[in-house]
Amino acid sequence: MSPKVWIDGKLFDKADAKLSVYDHGLLYGDGVFEGIRVYNGKIFECDAHLDRLWASAKAIRLTIPLSREQFCAAMEETVRAGGFKDCYIRAVVTRGPGDLGIDPRKSPRPSVFIIADLIAVYPREIYEKGISLITSSVIRNHPNALSARIKSLNYLNNILAKIEANDAGATEAVMLNHEGNVSECTAENIFIVREGQVQTPTPSDGILEGVTRKVMLRLCRQMQIPCVEKILQRHDLYIADECFLTGTGAEVVPVTRIDGREIGTGQPGAMTRRLMDAFHRHVRES
Ligand code: PMP
Q: Does residue 151 carry a catalytic annotation?
C-alpha cells in the first residue's frame, strides 16, 4: 500500500503530488472538499458525500469539472492504485490557478485532486476511555457569514477552537453558535443521550450535516432507539447521561468529560457502546 494522489486526471505518488501556489484554493481558501472512508474496498456512503460536495460547490458558485460518475471513478482509481482495502479519501475541488486577487473570474479552470491514504484521528485507547471536551470561546461561523453547511477550504473557525482545546489540555472543543446554542465540534458532530433518548443539534443550529451523523440517526431509527434533532444548550451537555461524537475520520467517539465535568459516570455509556458496535457492524456489512 502506498498513498496515491489523482490531480486533474493523472495519478501521482505522494511526494510528487503538487499544485500551483497560484491556486485560489491555497491563496484564498476558495474551494470545497470531502473526507470519505473506504471500508472493505467500497466507498462508504458515496452518494451522500457526492451530494454534499455538489451542494457545497453550488453554494460557492463553483462548477465541478467532472460528472458524479467520473468523480466516483476517479476516487475508485486512486484507491485501487494505492492498493488499499480500507483507507481515507480526501477529495478537493478548488477554484483553480489564477492571477492574484480574490475575484473568482481570475480562475476559470477549477482544480480537482483526490488523495487516498491511511488515517488515524485518535489513538485506539481513546475509544475505550472516552475524550474530554471544552466549550470554545470561539463561536461557530454565523450562517449569514459563511454557512457551516458548506464544507469549504476555510477551516480557521474550527482551527481556532481546536487550538483553544489544545491549550486547555482537552481533546476537542465544542462550539456554540451565535445564539449560544450547541453546534458541533471542530471536525465532528455531537450527540448526547438523556433518559434513553439520543439528541443532536439541527442543521439550522450551524452544523455541517455530517454523513456519519445521518448514518447514526438512521441506525437509531432501525434499532428503535428514540432520537431527536433539537436545540441543545450547554446546560444539556452538562446534565447529559452520555455524550459522543461522530465523523468520517473519528467514526464514533465517546465523550466522558466536558469543561472538567464528568458526563454520566465518567465512563463511555451503555448506549454509546451499543451505537459504536452497531456502527462498526454496519460499515462492515454495507
Ligand atoms: N463537522 C465538521 C465541522 C466537520 O469537518 C466534519 C467532518 N470531518 C463533521 C462535522 C462530520 O461530518 P462527516 O460525518 O460527514 O465526516
A: yes
